[in-house]
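# step 3/5: fold
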Amino acid sequence: MYGGTVLQAGGSGGIVPEGSRAEIFSQIFEVFVALGALVGVVVLSYMLYNAYKYRDHDGRADEDEYERPVLGEIPTGGGHGRKLLLSFTISAVIVVSLVLWTYGALLYVEQGAAAAQPEPDTAETMTIEVTGYQYGWKFTYPNGERVDGTLRVPEGKEIRLKVTSEDVFHNFGVPALRVKTDAVPGQTTTTWFGPAEAGEYQAQCYELCGAGHSFMVADVIVMEQSEFDQWYENMGNNTTSGGSNSSVSHPAATEVRVVA
């Protein structure tokens, strides 16, 4: 996958993951699942061990009776609290380390969003303006061309998004790419995603914005670089849906919007 996750911290060789948003959130999920599974195995194993150790059977000697835990009594043999202190210390170290590691990963995601502020695009980045309206999305590319309903981006690039709204509150999100941000009238929010693999994804609105909210979707198409370059060069001549200068009607909209 593009933008493979590496263990870095601001490029200094730490343990904070870097890569695409999808990879970062996937790794956070995997770490939580692995740690939860490990804790579950330890707890269940200890429970089964004690159930077997103190089981009732004919061969058990009467003098062993005193070793069995008794309901309502404090267990003996705890080492004067040393076992309890050790368990609390280990738990605290694990929890605090996990919190700090997750915070570092999410901070990297937010720093990526900060990098989406207006800056000259490079060979590795592209900035696209996203405008929400009732009930659709418009995408303005660096060349000034505007496309309604379909976001096309090149494979292998970090895509920076500057998101706003022309009427009411919306929220632009692409679940498969782990990107989501508010679209607020009169304000611009920034976010980013990628590099992403070639394929088709779906963006939709996650803020209840009116009767046509459920129809407020857009296709996100990640294209191979050569294919995207050809489309980008000719997009000014496109007249079909998904190109500039296209007329798009939305099922719940009250008018047909013409995007220049």
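# step 4/5: annotate
The chain has a mean pLDDT of 78.
# step 5/5: archive (pending)
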